[in-house]
Structure formats: structure tokens, C-alpha cells
What does this fold into?
Amino acid sequence: MDNRVSNQIKDFIEKNNKIGIAVGKNPGVDEMGAALSLYLSLQSFGKDVAIVCPTEALVEHSRLVGIDKVKSSFDAGSGDLTASFPYKEGEIEKISYTLENGFLNIIVKAGEDGLNFSENDVVFKRSQSYPGLLFVIGTPRLSDLGGIFNPQALKDTIVINIDNKSDNQGFGDIAFVSPTNSSICEQIGDLILSLDFPLDVDIAQNLLIGIEDATENFQNNSTSPLAFEMVGNLMKKGAIRSDNKSSKIMNQDLDMDIEEAPVFAQPALQRRPAQSQPFKSFANYPKQSQQVRSFLDQQIKNQQKQNKEDRGRKASISTQNIQEDDQDKNPPTDWLAPKIYKGSTNI
It folds into this structure.
């Protein structure tokens, strides 16, 4: 990464304690993995960080650490409170306030003509609390942020645009847009390493998952040299490569013994790494993953039932064969009884 750009970004981070990370609508695994990795790194660095996305997380995002921290908007609870009421020239003499018993009293002193509004005309509004520094990850247009993007609220916010899409509009105070990179996760990984920010095993795993998805498990011809370089660094941090796309679901923590699993599930379970993966329980997954778990449970039950029926049929056939063999081997019932000759002999 260019030292000038990284130094600018580091300076903005150091000057702002409240930092936001935004991802556009319907992000892919690469975009969400990059955003969550930056979120976890800045949080470990001691910053007050919030991550937002206008659309809900998808099933494929469930493997990413921190996906449950993504919100649909910035926390409105810490924004400014505004009290509004009708006003005519000359009707207000002054506005003051007092503190009594833990309450703040705002006093609107009427002028000579009196006030022309009542208590019912007073309107209270709570604004969203926008951060002083905002990272927009993998989003070509600000309009892709939906209701998250508020030009008036963001007028004092420093915006850093990080993306690898060629159609990115280049918005923001810093536009770190590099179409030659095959993934946004490799860009974020390079940024974290350049800034010497925290990069633990969870961050490394998120970045590796994003790079694998964006490069089609490194089979895409557009896979950049930085992607391969970054994977080596991430694996040194403890990240684990995925076997293949078909085993992604089966590599989740299904809490079952290999012997009890159906035949089709056993190879994937045997390949599952000994190190624990993110999301220990499907209870923390999005709704779609609950459906995946239900489907797999039903498939396992069906397979176990089929195996039991097959064993029963084999046992029945074996017993029948034994009985038939015994009948062939046993002598007639009168074999040991005395024999009386009843024929005749002609001499």
C-alpha cells in the first residue's frame, strides 16, 4: 500500500475515537468479510466502532466472525435531541434553562404579544449519531447505502472509500480504489498490516474466507499476486483454508459423532479442522441457517432410519438362510428307528 495513503488513514483514525463502517446493500462475502475484519481490528485498537448495512445478512455470511454486530443504521440513541415549535417575530423575549432535581428545564419567556403555540405544538426529534470518520467498504455508489447515507448529517464526517470495482465513483476524502486487486479482503488485510493494527485469528479467518470467495478458491484467472501473498500472512496468523465449496455447510459445527453421521457427511466431518470455528451454535445464526440446519437434521434422520431398515432386512435374510441350511443338513425324523424289510425275494 502507498505509504502516503496509509499515513493519511492512520492520522484520521488516531484523531477520531468514534468510527463507522458502512457496507452497501446486498454485499457479498468478500465485502462483508472485509468490513467485519476492519471492525474487529479497530475495536481491538481501542476505538468506538459501529458497522452498518441497509440489508439483512445472508446465509453465506454466517461463517464470518462478528456478523451479529452488523446493524441497519447508526445508533440514534447517542444523537442530538431537538425541540421544535412555531415561531413569530417578537413573541419570544429570551430562552433560558434551569436544573432542578435532576431535570433540565428549558424556559421560553414570552414577549409582549405572548406565545402563539401550545404544548401540543412542540416536536421532539432525535438525530442519528454519525461518526467523525466513516469507512465505506466495497460500495461503488453512495446511493447503495440507502437510508444510511445522509448528506446533511455526514457533512462534517471524513469518508474513506475502499473498493476494487472498476465502476466505483471515487467519492470520499480518500478513495482507495484498486481494480487490479482480486478482492477487497486482500486490500483490507494489506491496510491492517501497513498500519500495524491488531490482526488475530478471527480477523485472519474472515479475510481468508473473503479472498477464497472472491477468487473462486484461487481458480479465477484474475487472482492477483497480493491475494496469494496475503493468504500466506493470514495462515501464519492461524487462518485455515476451506476444503471446497461443497463442504462449506458440512464443515459447520454440527455437534455429532462421525459414526452416527450418514455416509455422505462422514468425509466432511473427518476433514473438519480441530480448531474451533466461529459461531459455535446455530442458535446465533440468521434465520436462513436455521433452515439449513433443519434440512441437514432431517437428512441425517432419514439416513439413520434407512440404515436401520437395511440392517433389519439383512438380519432377516441371514436367519432365513441359516434355517434352510439346517433343514438340508438334518436327517429324516425316522432315521434312527428300526427298519423292517417288507419286500419279497424270488429264488
Q: What stands out?
A: The two ends are 123 Å apart (CA to CA). The chain has three domains: 3-77+129-242, 81-126, 243-331. The beta strands are 18-23, 48-52, 81-84, 92-100, 103-110, 123-126, 133-137, 158-163, 174-177. Residues 245-288 have pLDDT under 50 and may be disordered.
